[in-house]
Amino acid sequence: MLSPLKKRLGVFTAIAVMAALVPALVASPASAAVSTDAQPKADTTKLEACPASASIASAGFTDTTSTDVDCIKYYGVTTGVTATTYEPAGTVTRETMALFLTRLATAMGVTLGDGSDQGFTDLPTSAASVTAINQIKQLGVTLGTTATTYSPDNNVTREQMAMFIERLLGNTAPGPNGNSDDTTTTNISGNATTYNYADIDTGVTYEGHNAIAELYHLGVTDDVSGATAYRPSADITRAEMATFMTNAMGHSNARPAGITLQATKNAAVGAMSTINVHELHVSDRAAAGSTGTSGTVVDVFGYKTSTNVDNAAFGALTTCKDSALVTMGSVACYMEASDWVTNSTGNIEIQLSAAASGVQVAEAETVQYWAWTAAAGTSYLNGTTTGGSTTTLTSSYGGDHVYMSTSHDNATETSEDYGPATSDCMDGKMGSDITITMQLMRTTGTTKTVADAGVSIGVNSATGDHGGSNIATDIQNSIVVTDASGTAT
Hints:
Blueprint: E1 2-4, E2 12-13, E3 22-25, H1 67-74, H2 94-107, H3 127-139, H4 158-169, H5 206-218, H6 238-250, E4 258-263, E5 267-269, E6 279-285, E7 297-304, E8 325-326, E9 340-341, E10 347-351, E11 366-372, E12 389-396, E13 401-406, H7 415-418, E14 425-428, E15 436-444, E16 446-449, E17 456-465, E18 474-481, E19 487-488
Parallel strand pairs: 2-17, 3-14, 3-17, 5-12
Antiparallel strand pairs: 1-13, 4-6, 6-10, 7-8, 7-9, 7-11, 11-12, 13-15, 15-16, 15-19, 17-18
Helix pairs in contact: 1-6, 2-3, 4-5
């Protein structure tokens, strides 16, 4: 059964499902167990320090293919255990972590102190390690294991890792799309307080508990939404550390060298034209890191994917076709003074909703964008022009209906018993559970299943006596959230 929904404005609201979700029960209400998704990550950034569009080179380690390891190697956070090995399953001592953290801080644009003595009496013999330990103490990233000891030989636990990263983010200015709950946006932080972890309420410090929850919502931790175990007392592995650090850098201004183009969403359900949601971001860096190049003129153009050869992006002479989409300026694929210009931090933000007519990604449409820079008057030549960046955005059909199914047969009684929507009523046995499955759908000539995760569906249900004319004896309101397949139960 297809039940009409109001137009999606952030969430789906099931207005016309009252009758559809009315199990008219024989004697007493059946139990209604409504399942919902676990707490999603609320404060994530949609941009990356190492986006796919940048084609970050492999770190060259023979014992891992992790792109997170590639990323921290690219930014100079790690050099590996040897030139060819990283030892992803290995643990990390507090001495080594201090070195990693100072390098990460540099990549994210944090100014380090002079490394002068901070009062620890158990420092290692390495001068570099001593400086790093003192520098993270100066930043407030470590407090030491006591006022006078750092315990450099101890392994870093996952709880300690969370506190290290959370404190470092507190010293880091957010980059484009980086999250901050500070009204002055002076540091990276989150404000969501809910969590799914069942193992951080006991045996964890107050600060550790809060840091773990905050990093979960920032998308820094190495688990998926809904994970229930964090393992705070376990030693952090080098692979896990790489993931934490790579995800943290995404919130900062750290970006690859050169021109890099990325989108806040490369795939979406429905048209990609919502302000502050669907954006293109361009960065320009002389070298990998957070120091941007300001004042760079950048041409950004796009093409809608088409099976028509006449609508191909480039002609036989590698020049742009007339069907190119102009996002700024007057001519696509051509450097002119009226093109985009990087700001003081070396970035450009393009709101697809505010761009020139025709450059938004419409429903069920694919658009590939390019960003590049050159001298004024230069034309883009595919395969010849270097130093540019490209990314593709794909939109699928959005849902406009919810299809509901149940193992229970529909009622056959009259409207006198069940109200006017007799075909939408369902019987339920006394004491039984009723499970109703809802699937997002789209009607576009033919009905299509819509796989859209995280859509909230408001459900109004009513139950009543089999023989009475007033069925609304027990009205319940609940929210269910769709999974990756667009289904909720």
